[in-house]
Input
Amino acid sequence: MDEIGFLVSHINSKGFVFVDPVGGFDPRNLFSRRVLICTEKEDIRAVMNPQGKRYTPKVLQTEKNSRAR
Output
């Protein structure tokens, strides 16, 4: 199975993360898709919400923001 990659391009004041795609894919497949944002400190579960040319994963709100239920 192929994996789609993204690079973080911007994080706004409300905490929304904007990403740019790496490689080709059909953006219609991203709506409400669960994703994992990997950082040096922790992995964060989020949900994609594509808008225009940038794609915004919405971080799932949990107790520690590290586990989605």
The beta strands are 5-11, 17-22, 34-38, 43-51, 54-59. The chain is about 0% helix and 50% strand. The radius of gyration is 12 Å.
